[in-house]
């Protein structure tokens, strides 16, 4: 933002529109930038403090969520503030929900698999009586953990999600789960009592009609 004394002119620039600002000792002009710093509750005394952040919102036209990262630094040689920004990234379509993780943004969507029932009519009746909101999740039991009770929690499973943190804390298991040393896949269950959580189940044909939706993810592009 640039403000000129003696007038009401105030120019506001979007991320990416300005790449650098040269220090100017003209007291008739002033510019400022805003950064978020959770470690410091007060504003810094100097004006050369840098930082980084991101821009995150939903595009009103397409309904797709937008992510753009940026950083601010001060170059003492050129006496300039440097503004760097990434390209705008979006989820594939409005059905995806973007989540901001430590390793970067990640888009998730629940996709149904309606062809499963038609592929084998023997299980169509069972599928119709099953709660359709039970969903397959990413996660397959590691070969070394099959029949090995020492493997506990998420450490017993292999995940294809490249943006998953090293020690994920968001896996909300059903009580006493995971409990099967041979149950090789993960699902999200909506329980009869209204609660919900993650469970490990066998990846069998019988279960294909019980859980007929998938939680899928991909990075924004």
TrEMBL record:
Record-given protein name: Protein CBG24172
- Gene source species: Caenorhabditis briggsae
Q: Lineage of the source organism? A: Eukaryota, Metazoa, Ecdysozoa, Nematoda, Chromadorea
């Amino acid at each position: 933002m640039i403000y000129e004394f003696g007038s009401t002119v105030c120019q506001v620039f979007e991320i990416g529109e300005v790449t650098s600002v040269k220090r100017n000792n003209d007291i008739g002009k002033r510019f400022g930038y805003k950064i978020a710093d959770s470690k410091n509750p007060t504003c810094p005394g100097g004006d050369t403090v840098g930082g980084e952040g991101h821009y995150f919102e939903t595009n009103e036209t397409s309904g797709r969520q937008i992510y753009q990262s940026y950083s601010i630094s001060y170059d003492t040689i050129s006496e300039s503030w440097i503004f760097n920004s990434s390209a705008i990234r979006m989820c594939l379509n409005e059905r995806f929900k973007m989540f901001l993780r430590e390793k970067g943004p990640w888009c998730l969507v629940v996709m149904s698999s309606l062809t499963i029932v038609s592929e084998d009519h023997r299980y169509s009746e069972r599928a119709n009586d099953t709660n359709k909101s039970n969903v397959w999740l990413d996660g397959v039991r590691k070969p070394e953990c099959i029949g090995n009770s020492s493997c506990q929690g998420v450490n017993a499973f292999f995940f294809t999600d490249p943006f998953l943190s090293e020690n994920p804390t968001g896996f909300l298991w059903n009580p006493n789960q995971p409990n099967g040393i041979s149950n090789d896949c993960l699902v999200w269950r909506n329980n009869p009592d209204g609660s919900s959580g993650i469970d490990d189940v066998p990846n069998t044909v019988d279960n294909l009609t019980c859980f007929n939706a998938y939680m899928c993810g991909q990075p924004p592009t």
